[in-house]
Specification:
50% of the residues are buried. This protein is globular. It is α/β, with parallel strands linked by helices. The chain contains 17 helices and 17 strands. The longest helix is centred in the first third of the chain and has 18 residues. 37% of the residues lie in helices and 21% in strands.
Amino acid sequence: MYIVMIASECAPVAKVGGLGDVVFGLCRELEIRGNSVEIILPKYDCLRYGEIYGLTVSLQDLWVPWHDRSVHCTVYFGFVHGRKCFFIEPHSPENFFNRGVFYGPADDDQRFAFFNKATLEFMLRANKHPDVIHCHDWQTGLVPVLLYEIYKQAGMTHPRVCYTLHNLAHQGVTREHILRATGLNRPGYFFHPDRLQDNFNRGAINLMKGGIVYSNFVTTVSPRYAWEIMHTDQSFGLGHTLHVHRQKVGGILNGLDYEVWNPGTDPRSAAHYTVETLDQKYANKQALRQRFWLRDVFKPIVCFVGRLDHQKGVPLITHAIGYCLQHGCQFVLLGTSPDSRIAQHFSGLKHFYNDNPDCHLELGFNEDLSHLIYAGSDMIIVPSLFEPCGLTQMIGLRYGTVPIVRATGGLLDTVFDANHANKPYGERNGYVFNDFNTAGIESALERAIGMWNNFPQHFRELMANGMRTDYSWNHPGQNYLNVYDYIREK
């Protein structure tokens, strides 16, 4: 099968969050299974160009209709750790992708609407007719709209579209100018509740809604999140649209790249270990303490790794730090925040705990350091307000670092409570709490810390259970191929 993946991220060249990991991991799994896969990305100036091999010009002169003119683009080709990637670089006064950041400028709607238009124009010009176009999140929501409304008439009748929703908190709500810019025009047609009109702001269009309406199948990144966006306020206003199109909506749990995240071979950890050689994990604990100047005492290390924002449960992370330190633990945090108020809050916490020999807060993003933290910690907290899938708890399981999570989204699909899960003991692998409050996370921390102190063998069994669980791309890869086959036959 010939698959074109269109996305705003792909690890490791363009990675902000889990989306980049998903695009790379899924593409590699699809290739392993014998499919031809190509990825199309914006050519950001902040790409990690050292991760691209053999970057060359693929198409020198691509002219993309935009408003009442055409924008000249160059398309580059290169390999990203074996994946075939095309990078679109527009030469225009708007300077769409030379901003030093992936997301954040006020004209993100225009930047990614242009990218959507340019990808289809490139595919048409290069005579690419894939079996499936796979798009991700609001940044590519216009691709199926443009394909159906414009490019199908230009000869692109073959591709079917799979559209994956990674996070409905960001939907690309914008105005009529996007229709004019991309050549869709006809506001009376598109400002309709059955098409692109936002469900609450009648004067706005919703790019994610467009992707849902016009694609052949919609996936989310976990079965639980699929249920939540259909039945709770996690839809952020798109519940009615998803209900209308419920026959083509399904949840597929994300996979984890088991080559990158492998405690048995990880070059960025201090010592390698497997479920059979679990004692070697403690050399990483020693290295982690040395790295952060934590005192060498007989205590569990609890960690948090991830983006510091509202979704991730800032109040509960804050509370957990103090609770763990008061109850005989050490605490390590690695994270950064795009929100200046949250960043200032954690900067204050870092100053407050600066002289505490049992605590270290590392405020920044450091992929290499994250590997040592996963390998050296005993437990990891993921107290999210909502979590479409979550990769940190999967990485924790892979590294024998017991996750403590809130019962939401993909966290519920992957972590099964040591005491209360409706699972055999051999499948229980962590601690789960329900309520998004301090009492909730305290209840889980109390049980986890108590198990570590009083029943070390049982805690070790939890670690081993997590390491034995297969959350690789093996199963999701087949699930996506099943979706592709389904929409090709329609």
